[in-house]
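Input:
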Amino acid sequence: MPMATMRDVAELAGVSTATVSHVINGSKKLSPETTERVLRAISQVNYTPNTVAKSLRMGQTFTIGVLVEDIRGLPVAAIVSGISETLSKAGYKTIFHDLHLLEKLYNQYEQIGTYRERINEGVLLLKSSNVDGIIYVAMHDRHLDYLLDPMDTPLVYAYSHGTENDTYVTYSNKDSAADMIRYLLSKGHERIAVIAGHPHSYPTGQRLLGIQMAMQQAALTLPPEYIRYGDWEYESGKTQTKALLELPSPPTAIFAMNDLMAAGSLSAIQTMGLQIPKDIAIVGFDNREIASYLQPPLTTVALPTPAIGAKAALHIIDMISNPYAHPVREIIPCSIIERDSV
Amino acid sequence: MPMATMRDVAELAGVSTATVSHVINGSKKLSPETTERVLRAISQVNYTPNTVAKSLRMGQTFTIGVLVEDIRGLPVAAIVSGISETLSKAGYKTIFHDLHLLEKLYNQYEQIGTYRERINEGVLLLKSSNVDGIIYVAMHDRHLDYLLDPMDTPLVYAYSHGTENDTYVTYSNKDSAADMIRYLLSKGHERIAVIAGHPHSYPTGQRLLGIQMAMQQAALTLPPEYIRYGDWEYESGKTQTKALLELPSPPTAIFAMNDLMAAGSLSAIQTMGLQIPKDIAIVGFDNREIASYLQPPLTTVALPTPAIGAKAALHIIDMISNPYAHPVREIIPCSIIERDSV
DNA sequence: TCTGTGAGGTTAATCGTTTAAAAGATTATA
DNA sequence: TATAATCTTTTAAACGATTAACCTCACAGA
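Output:
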């Protein structure tokens, strides 16, 4: 049995389709009797408006395209969760497109062409679905200016940065790192070492900046031998920690720039027979699931993922109703999750 | 500048919109010159068909609604990833709706009403978006028969079961558990204990069945004191393991029914000063991220999540073109991930 | 009695496609 | 030469909503 249409309702109620539409949308004052009759007819035939027809007529789909690099990436799922919640509360639907780009993204510059293709395809697909706007959730900064060229659809970046002229919402690298240092300082640590990520990556640079800043403010310095670079992976945390502990004057606290390296660090510390947090403190970044199951549970900084998603959704909705507004850059602070590793 | 329409193309090429449509869809043989002219016009005005109009006319949206309990649930993201990939390869779009139901689901029977409401809302929302079909991704079995009542939209369950008359795709609880036992047996273990999940949950029951079966086939038995029930959480793994180790004749291998409890178990074993896997072996279930970062890395069973997603997508597409086919129940085997804990 | 006003409803165009059916043009057949 | 057959293209009616503009009627005021 085909879905009931507005016509069916109109006929049953003995009115025109215009009247039915007005009842549904409250777009005109109607007599109580008519309204009543139409409402009854609606529930009698179990009528639901056909969104497709509505969209065609109104030139709006009330649909936002959510383009993600890979939903399997941990922060991505949490961000999408936030987006989805806010969007549906605001009456928007989410059309989801996954680029499946989770392979290790670094050092694959030869493949950048393929990435661009995949991304372009995704955008085209969403645009051809007549989405009212697009949210792009990427784990690493990508310069997507080339994408914007043919883009008359509002776009906001969530998590990663766009260019200067884009609207994006991300988390604070610099301030969060500084906060963590201040936290360590407040616990009495002064000899703090850091295991950074890839030397040239944006988060590494920013966080290092924040760290130096916080140290300076405390009239302390971060000696060069206390800065070691890893590759964001478990093993590198292990190696760099060993190097750190063999220093003539080893640190009393280690700040690893993600939880994976922190886990490696923790394992290295323990195989050297040291106690955490008695002999040395260790903190991470990201608050992945693993952080709470390490022994001891890891103190780390939590990304404001739900907030990033929610804000991104809010911004895209704004941009739809107000297409010529200025781009807005929103940077959300992270929070420190205290556990037992310091 | 508004998007170019078929009319624009037609005018530019000096033909009717019907001709343009035929060129695009290859639905009629046309002279090469006309085709050429239309094609040129299309790229000149940068035309993309308006999907909304197309959907209205065709009565099909080429859109599948993906209803998830909560995308933050680990297996959920991986399943959605599989769904999305298969769907978009087949030319379908994914409209995503998250129910945000991640709060601990157990023992909340009072809240079941709210769940039903949330789920119903979601289904209604998707139906009103005129999706061609719905995939429901739930982490726990829910009896959604009440949902099907007004459902003329094809539905497939992914991960969880539906009722007898539903199409679903899930993983094998019984066989995977049996496989794991056989694996342990092959490594020389005969005194195998199990830390189960909630006593009355479906996975617990099925896996226990598989375990008993495999033991019997090896002419071994699982003594009652070797079966302990946890609550799927870390702490319960710890407690149950302690109890197991205090037995007069402790097991040489422990099979925890998820990685979280296995992690707890591992911690308990180590605080008792035992070596893994030398003194005792431990295996888990789920292959969560945590499994590979435990010390030692945990041997566990991996859920076939991408396959579940892919198959679910395939089934829904089948059902769309063939609405009166029989329901199909597909159970996909899991695989054992060998690491260093046995 | 006539005009003006407002309330309550309707008419019909429109959004951008698809697709039967019709029409026109060209070639083949008798 | 007339007719049939074929090939190419067009006409126009959908699909199911929204909405500006119009219509009708009742009543108030002059």
